[in-house]
Amino acid sequence: MDCLFCKITNRELNSDIILENDKFLVFKDIHPKADVHVLIVPKKHIDSVDHITEEDAKFLGDIFLTAKEAAKKLGVSQAYKLAINVGKDGGQEIDHLHMHLLAERKEVSDT
Ligand code: AMP
Ligand code: ZN
Questions:
Q1: Which fold has domain 4-78?
Q2: Fewest CB atoms within 10 A around its CB: which of 5, 58, 106, 109?
Q3: Which residues lie across from 102 on neighbouring strands?
Q4: Which ligand 1 atom minimizes the distance to the CA of 83?
């Protein structure tokens, strides 16, 4: 299957990896739409949320724990957005289920 995110999770293609566990790879979005923009991608290929099976649902809950861990690692705990686009008309460009984690970094003032 010719899937960009399968190639990234298989390490056939490079990405800027933030963290990895047995089920997910988290890497930086190549065209960031916020100061922090990473993608949480299951290693198993699932086309979209519309294609989740009962079996998939058993491990997909862990996507939230992985997002939380990534937010902590990126220093944006308690101030981020999670988003999943579903289907072409729902804004999904890559047909491999993924969650966006977006956050703006606070200005650090030295006064
Ligand atoms: P979506 O529109 O929800 O399918 O999101 C796909 C995201 O993947 C977009 O935000 C793209 O910028 C991002 N993207 C596309 N190619 C790559 C890549 N090679 N590495 C990292 N992110 C990518
Ligand atoms: Zn895939």
A1: HIT family, subunit A (3.30.428)
A2: 109
A3: 37, 81
A4: 3
